[in-house]
């Protein structure tokens, strides 16, 4: 296992997601304050891959530096607010999900072993009947 690589990959995914969320927040704000710029940013976002946040920002830098600065500021704010809760939330959610999945596995094991023992008993009864 490579915990440091997994942590690095996870950080990159979160960074990309926070970039996406920052752009969404700014689009919502611009829709109210500057609809023309909101339309432009929506079109830009539709034609450029926002899933790779850093590449998206680098491309946008050539188009509108003010928007880039705004995205960076909102993304940084989101990171500071969200990351405070993340470790505990992730551990808790994984723990809860694992408990539920284990319960389902045990239910399936129990139901399949019940079906197996019922069919074994049935086969035993059939073979005993045939002996008479």
Write a structural description.
With 132 residues, the chain is an all-alpha fold. The chain has two domains: 3-84, Chaperonin-like RbcX (Non-ribosomal Peptide Synthetase Peptidyl Carrier Protein, Chain A, Orthogonal Bundle); 86-123. The protein is 89% helix and 0% strand. It is built from five helices and no strands. The chain has helices spanning 3-33, 35-47, 53-61, 65-82, 86-131. The longest helix is centred in the C-terminal third of the chain and has 46 residues, at 86-131. The N and C termini lie far apart (61 Å). The mean pLDDT is 88.
Total discrete domains: 2
Count the E strands: 0
Question: What would you call the quaternary organization?
Answer: single chain
Number of helices: 5
Distance between the termini: 61 Å
What CATH architecture label of the largest domain applies? Orthogonal Bundle
CATH class of the largest domain: Mainly Alpha
Largest sheet: none
CATH topology of the largest domain: Non-ribosomal Peptide Synthetase Peptidyl Carrier Protein, Chain A
Could you give a quick summary of the protein structure above?
The chain has helices at residues 3-33, 35-47, 53-61, 65-82, 86-131.
List the main descriptive attributes of the protein structure presented here:
132 residues, mainly alpha, Non-ribosomal Peptide Synthetase Peptidyl Carrier Protein, Chain A
Topology:
Layout (H helix, E strand, L loop, with lengths): L2 H31 L1 H13 L5 H9 L3 H18 L3 H46 L1
Helix pairs in contact: 1-2, 1-4, 3-4
